[in-house]
Amino acid sequence: MDQEWEAGLALLVQELEGDVGDNHEIFMRLKQSLGVMRAEGLPIPEDLARLESDLDARFALTSQEE
């Protein structure tokens, strides 16, 4: 993964952890970035794939509760 992708993804993860802004919006930007990486055939780091999966489950539960 190149430095530009790394920096962008690190910023999104930092925003999620720091509770900066709307977490759902940040999560959607993370999913979009990972989707682009997959489309370009770039490898997804295991920790980011796990984070994506965990957040998918978290937001699925949140939307079911509403």
Q: Can you write the helix and strand succession as a string?
A: HHH
- Given helix and strand content, the structural type is mainly alpha
Mean pLDDT: 80
Radius of gyration: 12 Å
The biggest beta sheet is recorded as: none
pLDDT < 50 stretches? none
User: Tally of extended strands?
Assistant: 0
Helix content: over 70%
| Apparent shape | globular
Distance, first to last CA: 37 Å
Number of domains: 1
Determine the strand fraction and express it as a percent band: under 5%
Number of helices: 3
Walk me through the structure.
With 66 residues, this protein is mainly α. It has one domain (3-65). The chain contains three helices and no strands. Helix 1 (3-18) packs antiparallel against helix 2 and helix 2 (23-39) crosses helix 3. The longest helix has 20 residues, at 46-65. It is globular. The relative contact order is 0.13. The model has no long low-confidence stretch (mean pLDDT 80).
Concise summary:
The protein is mainly α and 66 residues long.
Looking at this protein, list some descriptive labels:
single chain; 66 residues; mainly alpha; globular
